Amino acid sequence: MPAERLQKLLSRAGIASRRRAEAWIAAGRVTVNGRPAVLGTRADPERDVIAIDGRPLGDLPRRLARKRYVLFHKPRGMVTTLRDPQGRPSVGDFCRRVGLAGLHPVGRLDVDSEGLLLLTDDGELTFALTHPRHEVDKVYHVLVRGPLEARRLRRLRDGVLLDDGPARARAARILRRRPGGGWVEVVLREGRKRQVRRMCRAVGWDVVRLVRVAVGPLRLGRLAPGRWRPLTRAEVRALREAAGLSADGDEPAPAPRGGRDEGGVGDHGIGR
């Protein structure tokens, strides 16, 4: 295992966020082979003895080998990429800021959409969830402008023709009416670019807001935009089963301390 900067190692292992690890190093609380570390110190967890407050981290290699799974509420205005050449806020920027470096997004949400985004370093699960043969439901709550008529919902379920081929919702229903439109729920099993928006446009609706609230067994719940939480062991097991994988994967790594409250506050307001 190549040597890495200490703050990155501690963050990847779920011991502390990168910022907190840097503070520990600056305060002289971290040693490598008995010597106080400084910012910029690199270490190999397989060969070097890393300690915090004099207590060796003997399980560090095992922690680093675990996979990490995070449920993130992507806010509007953030691109679902690791870096953005246009300088817009990206998921990658967010991960590096809160000590989740090394994770990647599973699938995409366009810059104007928000909601549930799975972040992980589990390549096997990523491939399974994004492969067309594993039909995992993705549930969207959409605020639309236009008449909420049964025939429009029926068209979504029966299928509409888009410029890249036909598209059909597995389910579509009205959640709440509002003046001039309202909230509808759309369930898909595929994830083409801006598909929900294009399907709504095809039936005569303008999309005002779009929030993904579920992917398979995962639920966004009341997690506020810009915030995140680690998946539980039961959620990882259920997600692997939904993706057609063995449920007996590794126990998920603990999330780094600090940082899970980064971002906005409040409810996303679905159905209000």
From TrEMBL:
GO molecular function: isomerase activity
Chain spans, region Disordered: 242-272
Gene3D superfamilies in UniProt: Alpha-L RNA-binding motif (3.30.70.1560), Pseudouridine synthase I, catalytic domain, N-terminal subdomain (3.30.70.580), RNA-binding S4 domain (3.10.290.10)
Chain intervals with Basic and acidic residues compositional bias: 258-272
SMART domains: S4 (SM00363)
Keyword hit for RNA-binding: yes
Residue ranges constituting the RNA-binding S4 domain according to the UniProt record: 4-61
UniProt keywords, alphabetically: Isomerase, RNA-binding
EC annotation from Swiss-Prot or TrEMBL: 5.4.99.-
Enzyme class label: isomerase
Family listed: Belongs to the pseudouridine synthase RsuA family.
UniProt protein name: Pseudouridine synthase
Organism field: Thermaerobacter composti
